[in-house]
Amino acid sequence: MLRTSDFDYSLPDHLIARHPLARREESRMMVLHRQGERIEHRRFREFPSFLQKGDLVVLNDTRVIPARVFADGGKIELLFLEVVRENVWKCLVKPGRKMRVGATVRVRGVPGAIEEILPEGERIIVFDGPVDLDVAGELPLPPYFSRAVEPEDSERYQTVFARERGAVAAPTAGLHFTPEILAQIPHAFLTLHVGVGTFRPVQVEDLAQHRMHAERFRISEESARAINAAQRLVAVGTTTARVLESQGLPVAACESRTDIFIHPPYRPRAVGALLTNFHLPKSTLLMLVSAFAGREFILQAYAEAIAQRYRFYSYGDCMLIL
Q: Taking the model in full, what pTM does it have?
């Protein structure tokens, strides 16, 4: 039985990419060939050369919202996760001990009251009117950046194809694409609004006890037809892979939620190849890629990435699993 500690590794702090490269497509790309467990070192601009006839590249077109908000007075921090109903939001709140049911908060003068505290600690907040996140909020950069939001983040922490507003984190495997590269390859979009569930730490040692938070997704009629006609699906990012694996093939156009937790010994049933970034130790994302390529091979590849000074995490380099 695999445990959370089986997915641990040590990363030097200087390999965490806290800023993007000058050009998206210049990221390094480690290519893992599952057959023969062979590793190549390439650049992302070479990605199209690894596609075969009949492939379809599937991308997540979610757009990150400026979800991080400091309430009036600056003492309460809120992360706006999703709309529950008109003027009602599910939020994470810090510090939570002050925000019990009935407690109030103001955002740009708009009063809100805590209606409910959910089992995982999120607050349902009823506001007296609309909260304009574009005015009140900022992009919720990952905490490992250890820095404030900078002007370049407004463009670079979004994919060039981001359309559907709703994510609180970028689908980072898509950050490497440029419009020029996208135009060269057969592709389709789906939407999964990346929530906190993707990034919550695993707090149990027994993987069978971990529960993922459900995240919203949508597959359009057009994308469903393209996906079902493809000979091989190349998923861009773990979020795309989770949607496709939760649906299986053939997919149907739908709007739903998924809480699928992919980890060994799971074997992919829909995705034929996966493009992904390098993930945090003991994370559900590292467990997912281990289900695609094998835990030992992934940890070997991560050790080589560290030795070769790859850049890690959201603004870092990528891995193509074939």
A: 0.95
